[in-house]
Specification:
The chain has a single domain, classed as Rossmann fold. It has five helices and nine strands. It catalyses: 6-phospho-D-glucono-1,5-lactone + H2O = 6-phospho-D-gluconate + H(+).
Length: 256
């Protein structure tokens, strides 16, 4: 049985340095993935994360035509709704870069009246991308980008929720999210923890206590603490100094 590798925490002195280093990290992951298999599979969450990706806009070397973009979680709202992760990612990133529309995989909102069916349909979308080429039980994303809420939730995996123990489904619905909107879909831990790389991105002093709890007290079992990709997968934390102020966990200088 492969054991998870210890998280790698890197803290940056200012937002600009974080954004630039994150872009360089993503570019390296993209380059290695394309060299290996001719494409780059990535999953995004929403919240404050998409704005941290502005370092990719106009950056040389980004092969947008090789990207296949999925969502780590999504709110079951129309795709142009302000609560939609797809809408947010499109507004701050995809509308500003030459990524083919067909390479972005949003939910099918026509199925909104049945969240379970919608989650199953999104799982089938993943199967079309991964299952025919990969023999693994779960899809292996090249990179999953996540944020963390004040309660330690990540994607739409919330503290104390039954979805934390899901072991079989790739995508699951949640109809009782403690944070509105209540109806969402989310990638499950088996998918997240099979990724080649998972990168959390946090900034601001308001995240300092949460980051301390996640990294210094993992036995408390906050959802973000449970993201531990199996070897050879690796989890990275890209944070600013304000977010890292209370953390005792060892920091690693950024290097590619």
């Amino acid at each position: 049985m492969h054991t998870p590798s210890a998280p790698i925490l890197t803290s940056f002195s200012n937002p600009e340095e974080l954004v630039d280093s994150l872009a360089r990290f993503i570019l390296k992951a993209q380059r290695e993935s394309i060299e290996k298999k001719g494409k780059f599979t990535i999953a995004f969450s929403g919240g404050s994360l998409p704005a941290q990706l502005e370092g990719l806009i106009g950056r040389p070397g980004v092969k947008w035509d090789k990207w296949q973009v999925f969502y780590a979680d999504e709110r079951i709202v129309p795709l142009d709704h302000e609560d939609s992760n797809h809408h947010l990612c499109t507004s701050v990133l995809f509308s500003k870069v030459p990524i083919p529309h067909a390479n972005i995989h949003p939910i099918d909102y026509a199925l909104a009246s049945d969240p379970e069916e919608l989650a199953d349909a999104y799982e089938k979308e993943l199967i079309r991308e991964f299952a025919q080429k990969d023999s693994a039980r779960f899809p292996v994303f090249d990179l999953i980008l996540l944020g963390v809420g004040p309660d330690g939730h990540t994607a739409s995996l919330f503290p104390g929720h039954e979805l934390l123990s899901e072991e079989d489904r790739w995508v699951a619905e949640i109809v009782d999210s403690p944070k509105p909107p209540k109806e969402r879909i989310t990638l499950t831990y088996p998918v997240i923890n099979h990724a080649a790389r998972v990168a959390f991105v946090l900034s601001g002093a308001n995240k300092a206590e949460t980051l301390r709890e996640v990294l210094d007290n993992p036995e408390a079992g906050l959802p973000a603490s449970r993201v531990r990709p199996i070897s050879p997968g690796q989890v990275y934390w890209f944070v600013d100094d304000a977010a890292a102020e209370k953390v005792q966990y060892p920091k690693t200088p950024f290097k590619l």
